[in-house]
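Journal club side-thread
Mid-discussion, someone asked how the predicted structure for our own chain would compare to the paper's figures. Pasting it here so we can look after the session.
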Amino acid sequence: MAIDLAEVNRALENGEFLPYFQPQVHLRSGKLTGFEVLARWSHATKGIILPDDFIPLAERDGWIHELTYQILVKAFSSALPLPGALQLSVNIPPIQLRDRSLAKQFEEVARLTGFSLERVMVEITESAMTDNPAQARLIAEELKELGCKLTLDDFGTGYSSLRHLQSLPFDELKVDKSFVSSMVQKRDSRKIVAAVVGLGQSLGLTTVAEGVESREQAEMLLWLGCDTGQGWLFGQPEPAESLSTVLSAPQHKVATGIAFPWKNLSIGGMEGLPAQKLAQLQAVYDGAPVGLGFLDRGLRYVNLNRQLAEMGGRSVEEYLGRTAQEMVPHLYPKFEPYIRRALQGEAIAGFEVDVPATRENGAMTSLVSYQPARDEAGEVVGVSVAVLDFTARKQADEKLRQYERVVEGLEEMIVVIDREYRYVLANRAFLNYRATTREKLLGSLLSDFSGEEIFEKVVKGKLDECFKGKVVNYELNITYPDLGLREMQITYIPIEVSGGVTGAACVLRDMTERNRMIRANLDWQKRIELAQEAGLGLGLWDWDLRTNTVLWSEETCRQWGFARGTFSGHVEDATVRIHPDDLQKVEHAIQDVRAGRKERYAAQYRVVRPDGTTCWIDACGVVMPDRSGHMTGIGIDITDIKKVEESLRESEEKYLLLLNSTAEAIYGIDMNGDCTFCNPSCLRLLGYTKSEDLLGKNMHALVHHSHADRSPYPNEQCQIYVAIRKGEGTHVADEVMWRHDGTSFPVEYWSYPMNKAGALVGAVVTFLDISNLKLLQGATAANHA
């Protein structure tokens, strides 16, 4: 096609060069993996011009760089809305691998469009690397540094391909369409494709086949292990405005059920990767959990795995090339007829063979199967042998009986439910909890005992999960006839027979008491946390009674004056810091716990720190019930409390000194009017010798029961009681109180309410003997008269 430079310049200026997008599809899943970007010229009069008509001109006349730039900008911009998992494959003409600005061009376009270069696959042909391999390698590495991936395009059509694969950091290998198009018809093409795919797999490269036009080609590529396909079978190149249609189109998953003629080839005759497939088969052979071997028509061992050799007590090497009769002469007469039948083409399912004990192995029971092996012509060329050690199955009956005896004696409740939700087995513990008999339970529906509502809402769904092969754990509150509501932990374990789940083994554990202890423990932990948050100086410790070592929290270390990480953990290294006056009682407490005489530890003691300061500790602990030999406890810093107690004692001494030295009589009463304290002046005026004579006695009944004329003085009228009835202070200038000897004397008294923590708790009464005052007042009145 004749194209002049003026047309090209106009086309570049008008943006007539456009990217088209051809889908690339993952063969196994049919999912879209990305697109290859193909250049098209939308000519004003000639229509769409294919790249073969203008790319060579662009390379020759020097406008390939501008063309590439325009295609990249439009392609990246159009692909920006596509899902992030889809990549773009971009062809780079060979001449551009000589352009050191190529990587910068990609970087500039990515920056301009915002398209990530990690989604870009740069396709490089083999021929592009032949002129200047060093330059090509340098440019390729620059593209890799930007995040681009590299594809070796048209593999097999150029030169020195293996050297290029080794020297350049390729991610993908592309099979040329010339081989793909003829692979179904031509054996040589098929071999080449298989070799390329195998090479890609060996090097860890993704393999892409282009030019896929038929389902047979796609299936053969999938069969050979190719990863990705591209071609008209999956979609022709489309303009950017059609991308949404391509994304919504149905997936092209490759079917594998079509009976193409080439599928009749045996594994050994497959083109491609014979060494790899042999290695895979050998790995399966060696890793099988059963004994496997192959006998030729002469009944010689051609191959066998380690498991089969060990069953005979020999090495693999001893078997190879020797006949079955030579290797197992004592058993040969038993299985020879079966092997002969397999050589006639009959598949022999597992039959049982008892193998007597040898020096190397004990007696065993085996299940043996023989399968005729055929070549591509269908003729039997040998026999595949599979041997399963069936000894365990033989022992299963006895183990089952033992199991039933064990299950019957377990504390856990064990029951088996079939797929019809009926009880088929239950142990004694389950029957006891249900307060029923085995005869009543077995065969009945689970809902008859659990209740229809709980069964439908909870139990049935959990069992259905188990019947799908899952182990199910959950908790449920169940009411039992004699026990009431219990918190149960329930486990359903699928029972599989012959590859299917036939029922569920149910294990029920009564967690009521355990959960109660857990909740109590959590409650205490919360209290401890709150105490620590409140700054109460609460330290934690764990004491190993057997080794006499202890683990401390950070607060405990602080209490004892140890820097974090400096304490050895030995108890004796800590007790040296206990105050001498407290050491003996602490040591006795430790000895009682370690000797098993006590399960609890409680002590208050002083610790003298290295800096000379003293810390009072209130420690308490308890031996753990799990028989681990550990005691866990807490230590509270009560230094401030001790200081307050000391201050209170000093204040109390001062208060008592003041109370005992005053001439005023003072006593206290509680809310019932009973004496709570009294001073010496009170005892002296009332005629008592010791405080015990008044303490706890009702003071109104004892000293304030009558008026001066001996008429009763009801306590409802007593002014002293106003302080505890109304919380108000009272003052009475002249009343009488009665002494221990029954005589009375005039008093002036005051009664004051006594409060504690904001609550009225009693009253304090102060009184004076006003006998002399009254005599003086009488004398004064007589003089005036």
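Post-session note: Confidence is low (pLDDT under 50) at residues 264-275.
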